[in-house]
Fold each of these.
Amino acid sequence: MASCTYVIVGGGVAAVSCVEELRTIDDRARIIVVSSSQLVKTVVNQQKIGQLTELFDIAEQPVTNVFADLDVTFVRATVTHWNWKDKELLLDNDQRITYDKLCIATGGRPKTNFRHALSISIRDTETVDRLRTQIKDAKRVLVIGNGGIATEIVHELKNVEIIWAIRHASISATFFDEGAAEFFKPMLIYGYKKRQLSSTKPKRYRFTVDNEKENGVMGCALGPEWASTANISGSLSDRRVYVIYKVELKGFVSQDTAHNAVQQDSSRFSSGTWPLYVELTNGEIIGCDFMIEATGVQPNSDLWARDCHLVSFGYFQ
């Protein structure tokens, strides 16, 4: 049985940041990191140039190397049981860890109310790579969601027709009121512009999960910089964006149902032959090559909730 002052469960941005911060405030405490993935990308060769600019390289390293100078013990495993009263974790390798303080940094997973082979839930670098592959031959995609990821996706997609279905009365309602949304709407409709390279690099550290990850292990969240390197382009020569307000996803329908809707003039986007047909809550049917579901995430807290009582608003007793 191992014991420590701090144990961090997770291998993403939050976990790495937590380790670094804990070590700055407590240079003697024993820290154990438990994660099912052992490769991350981190900042190396960092040089400060002036007051605002920093020069650095991004390198892919085993997590043990990243934590080498921090005197951290890394355990590659998955937590299977949490004894919160005795402050003890049981791992899938039968190892037990006791601790004084626990940091849960297990991230989240996409909210997927409707599952389909032609539906992509954007969450990590792996799902963005899948999107980039599938969209190459696409002419039309349906985007469900109105948060940050959905907004960035609509902005970044190129050479494809985009049907953007949102449940609010204005775009990006999480961030803007209706007036601001109308101001920014033309920028979203026009879409991606090639960025000019800046001589000033951001100070923010960037961590991403390596591609060599185990099956069933969800990667790190995309973070605020994912769109800066995305190149997501369809098969058309230009892009078009249509926004449908105050709707949600109702379900998937057959081609016959979609064609009947066309005959009844009840849907403007269901004509033609498409691999996927989706019905919205306003009765409109959308034909598309595939659907991008960006309706947020839910925390990977099943184990913690199972082994500990939850009270209102998700706080532990």
Note: The first strand starts at residue 2 and ends at 9.
Amino acid sequence: MLKSVDYENFEGERVLLRVDFNVPLNSRQEITDDLRIMESLPTINQIIHDGGIPIILSHLGRPKGKWVNKLSLETVAKYLEQKFGYNVVFSPDCLGKAPFDAIEKAKPGDIVLLENLRFYNYETSNDLEFAKILSQYGDSYVNDAFGTVHRYHSSIYELPKLFERRFGGKSLMWELEYLGNAMNNVVHPYTGIIGGAKISDKINVIKKLIEVCDTILIGGGMMFTFYKALGLEIGRSIFEAEKVEMAKELIDLAKQRNCNLMLPVDIVVADHFANDANYKDVDVENIPSDWLGMDIGKQTREQFKKIIMDSRTIVWNGPMGVFEMENFSKGTLAVATSLANVTAKGAMTIIGGGDSGAAIKKMHLMNKVTHVTPGGGAWLTYMEGEILPGIEALDYK
């Protein structure tokens, strides 16, 4: 049974706390979005309040087993001190003598933060010996990094199994509760909104949603693979030729399950792939041969808005167009606005990280929807019904 920190006391313990401090940095090594840090604070604060010392483990970026100074967690250590007032004892390594020295130096009320785990390939290769070394630093283990629980990494999968006392952190338990509600305690009409470039990334989650949703709205680059499956010409729009048959299968499956798989009726096309390109709305049956699709069109935005506003449960993952370019962000922003509006009417709205979460944040709507999950990959794995290694390890018998 998965146990939560909510019902535990950590007085006198060194608590190995796996968090997700994989925060975005600008060219000046400044943190530009601290949401992932903020999400870990309730668990950190509980451990400190109980009289324990959090020994924090995390990764930052993808250094691929090499020492990359700009990906040092010392940046986060300073941020925790300067913005939140914590006293952080930073260990400049996660192996060797440094962690032991940092832990010995720490007093009740302090935080120990170890250097980036991914500076060693042992982490991403799920190395058991690496986990055994890390286990020496603590008396108990807590995972509060939902965004990483879909990975077979050493600190996520092997490390917790070495502890009798292992728990889910507050943020992780909240994520599981919200996502569980989205799949198991559904109020209809239930709508899934799926976007992004590739259908291959979302096949299993679309299949799962077809089983439970009344309507699925499709946007983003993947719509062109569906159009190909329907025999439509798509100009120079990018599609996955090897997934056209799968798109046909999904269309047929939706019909069998009486799920309305809804594709855009019009799109925004451009004469080249740039924000300053010439662009226009066209019907999907009249896409010019030398133009390419960039976003859902105006008529589709209105149709999607109506479906969303008539729904009681909505999950969303993936942008409706090339969201990074302002001229092709209208579809994504329209969906975000509609989700905020329907939440105000009492609907449950869950946004699955990545660009979808970025759109919600850009429009200052984070507090206007039910929940934005930080872990896009973990969200998809969960929604597909697949095993989450980090959760399996916490529940290990």
Note: The first helix runs from residue 35 to 50.
